[in-house]
Design a protein that fits this description.
The protein is an alpha/beta fold and about 280 residues long. Among the domains are: about 80 residues, no CATH class; about 90 residues, Alpha-Beta Plaits. The chain has ten helices and five strands. It has a five-stranded mixed beta sheet, sandwiched between helices. Helix 9 links the parallel strand 3 and strand 4. Helix 2 runs antiparallel to helix 7 and helix 4 runs antiparallel to helix 5. The longest helix is centred in the first third of the chain and has 36 residues. The protein is rod-shaped and about 130 Å long.
């Protein structure tokens, strides 16, 4: 039983601090994404600068690949002792862009004797982005758009944090619903009068009244003494008096008299603490 109560307490503490954990995770994730963005942005700038300084790099790369393939074929033919038919050397024209290089490579005749070269050419063309997606990513990559996206993510994160905290706080509180016609303790004012010579008895009973959520009224003493605790009520407040008596464990109940009414003030119910209530 003790273990179960400890587990429940731990789970409650975790749920109570969940907004803090969520906000911490969001901050760490945002910092990580920001660092990643800065790093990728720097690499893109370097790549663009490299492409600007070496516009003939795709054609040169393709020519080097063909040279390596020719060398590998020649070495393989030398090992196998097979003479390969002479083929005219292709004329390579340096394209202006990477897209033109890939399209030019695709137009060059590729025989079945060079499957590796055919695969390289196909992969290069497949890696080229679609023009529509290229325009989209170029638009998304603008600093202004990225700043708006980051701002929206922060707003959504904060909304989620505060929303979850509010839900947890509302879930942690106790909401009491009352049926129509039921007695609401907060709406019942209760006066407590000491009907004995025991000091502090009225204060003790007043504490019991407040513990049960009743509205505490006047606290005082009566002129006459009572052997038994009794609950007195104003006209039309019998149902409220029954609720007070049930909460305090007091069964005797009667309408309030004029003398007690003056001592109780404008309270709906008066509890007279008798000697049976004394410690």
């Amino acid at each position: 039983m003790l273990l179960a109560s400890n587990v429940v307490k731990i789970l409650y503490d975790v749920a109570d601090h969940m907004p803090t954990y969520v906000s911490l995770a969001a901050a760490v994730g945002f910092t990580f994404l920001l660092t990643l963005y800065v790093s990728q942005r720097r690499d893109l700038i370097r790549l663009q600068a490299f492409m600007a300084t070496a516009p003939d790099h795709p054609a040169e790369d393709l020519a080097r690949s063909e040279t390596l393939l020719d060398r590998a074929e020649a070495e393989l033919e030398e090992i196998l002792g097979v003479e390969a038919p002479e083929a005219p050397e292709p004329t390579v024209v340096a394209p202006s862009t990477l897209a033109e290089a890939a399209r030019g490579a695709a137009k060059q005749p590729t025989t079945s004797e060079r499957p590796a070269l055919e695969q390289i050419t196909t992969e290069r063309e497949a890696l080229l982005p679609h023009p529509r997606w290229h325009r989209f990513w170029a638009w998304v990559g603008q600093p202004r758009v990225l700043a708006l996206i980051a701002l929206g993510a922060v707003i959504l994160g904060l909304a989620g944090i505060f929303g979850s905290e509010r839900l947890l706080n509302n879930g942690g509180g106790t909401t009491t619903t009352h049926k129509p016609g039921a007695i609401v303790p907060q709406d019942v004012s209760v006066a407590v009068l000491n009907g004995t010579s025991v000091q502090g008895l009225a204060g003790k009973v007043a504490s019991d009244v407040q513990v049960n959520d009743f509205s505490l009224g006047r606290v005082g003493t009566t002129r006459k003494e009572y052997d038994q605790t009794v609950v007195m009520y104003e006209k039309g407040q019998k149902k409220a008096a029954t609720s007070v008596g049930r909460a305090l464990g007091v069964k005797p109940m009667q309408p309030i008299d004029a003398a007690t009414q003056r001592e109780a003030g404008d309270a709906d119910v008066a509890v007279i603490a008798g000697r049976d209530r004394a410690p």
